[in-house]
Amino acid sequence: MDALDTPPDGDPRETPLRGEHEALGASFTDFGGWLMPVRYSSDLAEHHAVRQAAGLFDISHMGELLVEGPGAGEFLNRALAGAISAVPVGRAKYTMILAEDGGILDDLIVYRLQDEVFLVIANAGNRETVARALTDRVAGFDATVEDQSDDYALIALQGPAAERVLAAVSVVTDVSPALVDLRNYAWGSAFFEGEPLLIARTGYTGEDGFELLVPVAHAAALWRALLSAGEPHGLVPAGLAARDTLRLEAGMPLYGHELSRDIVPAQAGLGRVIPAGKTGFVGEHAPREGARALIGLSAEGRRAGRAGYAVYRGDDLVGEITSGALSPTLGHPIAMAFVDPDAAHATDLTIDIRGTRIPASVTDLPFYRRNS
Amino acid sequence: MTDLNALSYTAEHEWIAVDGDVATIGITDYAADQLGDVVYVDLPSVGTTVTAGQVFGEIESTKSVSELYAPVDGEVVEVNDDVDADPATVNSDAFAAWLIRVRVTSEPSGLLDRDAYVALTGGDAQ
Question: From the CA of B40, how many Å to the nearest CA of chain A?
């Protein structure tokens, strides 16, 4: 057989939790130039734990960029697709940074920490691109951009038991607002080992959950405290393999698959990241309707379409899968694909799975939605 | 418990046990670990001819798809239906979860012994 995980080439970056992952017996893979845990025990066990209890992910490979100054809000309105100055302190927003022609440079989460302070979270592989674009675009604004990625670790606690787990970590103190009052896409502050800890109710799995920003020196202690407090609640460490099937079920795009420099937001079904009527931002001239549209596909059986597989309508090639897997939660294959607009609602699509055409039906995204 | 030293291996992570003119073929535990949870195995039917170095099937995990390469020339005489019914057995015991049995038509060549296979994986296959 072939296609085993390639060991990381060259000199991949390591997160501050590398030692923790090794102690837990993780397998590693190269992801965006980072040596990351792909699984600790089993992809499926970790996936199901996040759906049914909770999982803990190291996402320290993500970039953290601090934007501050009296002109920070105005600058981010110009530099990013969203209406960032309208985000209240204490809240977060999903947005994008676009190239001049509207192509997606990255998708981002922006937290408003204070009136004049914003934290921008970028994908690992795009950190430098985002830092460079923000630095270029800040000229003329009364604001500064600082890449603080190397100073912070980011840990994601995801699953229906996430709130109970975090509440059980006695060494996390002074949580404000209280966890029960912390809304989705809001953040709160706390202390861990005397250090300020940012707790955001955000995530990438389709479950309730938190993302915790902690100074690098305290990351391992927080990781262990969470695992220990969470064990009675079914918390397990979870790797990138589970993260990928979880986000796919939740219909969330992944940069390099559903999002890229050659895709405009409207194509990815994410035209709403640009508020109606917004002007004066980089990429505003992007077509609002793209050539190919992102759709969800469901199939029967166990053979999944994978990234790069062709989508046909009759004998016509109409698109290509961007991400696909046998859904662990739903038990059948699911995929996201870019297809020609007139095939986006077709009822006669097939996926070419290594020479065999499998019927697939267009399915609303997300494939999985938690009960709330 | 399988005596791993009694098996032969390929660089593509198959193991082979030869008994008379019949070779039993599976994938190694190292390969199963690397793949992650196996969710589907596509195997040839009994009577199919396989050729050394050529693809005879595929194995699909949650995360990826890999092709299976025949280590020998011959005809498939038996297929492990238990693996088809429960592909996860490849993860739980890769050496018990054989995939196919082949009546070998020529002496296999170029196979690795256990030490050479372990060396190939950088010692990760113990």
Answer: 6
